[in-house]
Amino acid sequence: MEIIAKCKKIRSSPQKIRVIANFIRGKNIKKAFQILSFNAKKSSFLLKKVLFSAISNAEHNYGIDLEKLKIKKIFIDNGPTLKRTMPRAKGKSDKILKRTSHITVILSEK
User: Fold this and answer.
1) How far apart, in Å, are the Cα atoms of 80 and each of 11, 15, 17, 50, 55?
2) Direct distance between the N- and C-terminal alpha carbons of the chain, in angstroms, rounded to an integer
3) In this prediction, what percent of the chain has a pLDDT beyond 90?
4) Burial class, 41, CB count within 10 angstroms (exposed 0-12 / middle 13-18 / buried 19+)
5) How confident is residue 66, by pLDDT bands cut at 50, 70 and 90?
């Protein structure tokens, strides 16, 4: 049985979130929360939020014991990019790309 939680249009680039997601991929829930709690990056807070949502889904919808859960898969996909411009010298402009992410966490029983 797979339990899924998604969070879309997160205002952080996928490249930054994937660094932290690689630490917790395949770990059990307790170990993943320890890793995310002691990491000071913004992306660890975002991943912890989605992970907590997946745990709540497992507990409320399926009645699964939390000790049996582990992270099966984590996907960090590109979301829509906000395009902005910044004025530069001699009347020119540069593009600023503010990237967003979609996070998907899939849990399974051991």
Assistant:
1) 10, 14, 15, 19, 27
2) 10
3) 91
4) middle
5) confident
